[in-house]
Design a protein that fits this description.
Number of strands: 9
Number of domains: 2
Largest sheet: 5 strands, antiparallel
Oligomer: single chain
Structural class: alpha+beta
Distance between the termini: 24 Å
Low-confidence stretches: 1-12
Radius of gyration: 19 Å
Shape: globular
Helix content: 25-40%
Order of helices and strands: HHHEEHEEHEEEHHEE
Length: 236
């Protein structure tokens, strides 16, 4: 990432945070809550748009290599106000913390959410890495996946992100490609232990995280299970 793009990213984050901090407590809560009725409203708007556009979807264009969970962001200008009255208050475009996206666009386009606070935390780490000029690898925790050396980066303690699925604070890992990712192993292990779903080794099991949630596990690596039915990073 060059310096101009990095500076732009930091400015965008600062603008979003400034907007969030200026809200009243009630407004702040509304901007951070994934209300089911708002998802349903956007879902119906997307379906009506698709019907009237001959099968097209109201999404922004992204590179084909973009991560599957952030690949199809909804373009609200295509559905507001013709198919729904307004942009949800919790949407990024309206000062909220969520990016509205579509999943399963080929078979069953479904509206889901991305928690942008996670993206913000990863940008902070990327900024520190850019300043330090080197990647902070520690011990391997998977195939070409490593713990992050936070002391080397100048942090006093490991950085974590709040899980969108539980009260757990999730660690961050770094892959051999130099990118940082959220490690959802804790949440996945809880699901596998408590719900005991039938899963096949070699299958990406991240779908378990959002079967009963509106939020997608963006900025993560694929997981599968080992012979002990424990979550492990999939080998590339």
């Amino acid at each position: 990432m060059n310096k101009r793009l990095l500076l732009l990213s930091v400015m965008v984050c600062a603008a979003v945070l400034s907007g969030c901090l200026s809200r009243s407590p009630d407004e702040k809560q509304a901007s951070e809550t994934p209300y089911p009725d708002q998802l349903e409203t956007v879902q119906k708007a997307v379906e009506r748009y698709q019907e009237q556009s001959g099968g097209l979807l109201p999404i922004k264009t992204r590179d084909m290599e973009t991560d599957q969970y952030i690949k199809y962001p909804i373009e609200f200008s295509k559905i507001v106000p013709d198919f729904t009255e307004k942009i949800p208050g919790n949407a990024f475009e309206n000062g909220g913390i969520f990016q509205y996206v579509l999943t399963d666009v080929e078979e069953n386009p479904t509206v889901k959410l991305i928690d942008l606070r996670i993206a913000e935390k990863l940008r902070d780490i990327n900024l520190r890495t850019f300043i330090n000029g080197k990647l902070p690898f520690l011990d391997a925790v998977g195939d070409n996946v490593y713990e992050v050396d936070y002391k080397e980066m100048g942090f006093k303690e490991p950085l974590t992100v709040q899980s969108p699925y539980s009260n757990t604070h999730l660690p961050i890992v770094v892959a051999g490609d130099g990118n940082f990712y959220v490690d959802y192993s804790i949440d996945l292990n809880k699901i596998l232990t408590e719900k005991q779903p039938e899963v096949e080794p070699g299958t990406d099991i991240r779908y378990l995280l959002f079967e009963d949630s509106a939020v997608l596990p963006a900025y993560s690596l694929p997981y599968t299970v080992n012979e002990e039915n424990e979550p492990v990073f999939m080998k590339k």
